[in-house]
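Late entry, zinc ion complex.
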Amino acid sequence: MSYVGPDFEPPRPPRRPLRGPLTVAVAALVPGALVGWLVWQAVGDSGGDGSAAQASSSPASSSGRSASPGASDDGKEQPDAGTGQTGGSEEPGKSPPASAPAASGPLKGKVVVIDPGHNPGNFQHTSDINRKVNIGTNWKECDTTGTSTNGGYTEAKFTLDVSRRLRTLLEEQGATVKFTQDGDRAWGPCVDERARIGNKAGADAVVSVHADGSAAGNRGFHVILPGSVHEGDADTRPIVTPSRELGERIAGNFLRATGSAPSNYVGDRTGLDVREDLGGLNLSTVPKVFIECGNMRDSKDAAQLTSGAWRQKAAQGISEGIVSFLRG
Ligand SMILES: [Zn+2]
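Prediction complete; structure with ligand written out below:
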């Protein structure tokens, strides 16, 4: 089993040739994390803070009942078999409001666009989100509702929570941070518009935040990288390499910060996956990745995802990956 990211050099089985350049970066960065990784190897996943203890402080956006999401732009979230009830005990509290970037810091002058996946209001606008949009390679739903935990904590709330924490961390380091939506619109935006927001901002990096809805037992996080696509409005050729660099650094730092393992059901436990069917990536002209932070349908992962303390670590890991990428 191995995991390749800019911050780790774990023992690894033979892998696809893609990751050569990574090895160099890996060894250079964080020995501590290797220890953490090896500990995880040795004792199995500690389940992050393992506590399902409620979020000490994190946001509750307008409750979004997640009604059968279908295949979303991340194309994998399973239909929501849960009650879609919100207000379960997993309900979090308050997340930091937007503020101005710090006057100085390592990210001064950098623009980061954060794309909180889905929207808490999507379930109330099914005809709008089911409308097809062009993603270059084909036509796809505008957006989906996203998945939820069995306890009813919705992915749409999770993504806003982690994204807002991430914004605060990046602004503290001087970055200008823009959102594709901040729970401040009734539904959407559509996947094509989400890509255009990053393009228009001239973002130095874009991250789309999600959590997966897969079978129980499927665990861990993975980062989705754009494949090389050149069709219709889609041309990812210029961003494939920098997006991989961004993705590897986020994966490495996410693992170190959360202690969570790379996915055991996508990407051969490398924590990385390459896709050519996601509108949000296909239409991007700036470095961009998606991160699936864990599986909301697995009880152990759900215990992490519903924990405010763990979500803060997740935001920290993503932030450090972005900083590491932007500082080159
Ligand atoms: Zn999603």
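The longest helix spans residues 240-258. Will revisit in the morning.
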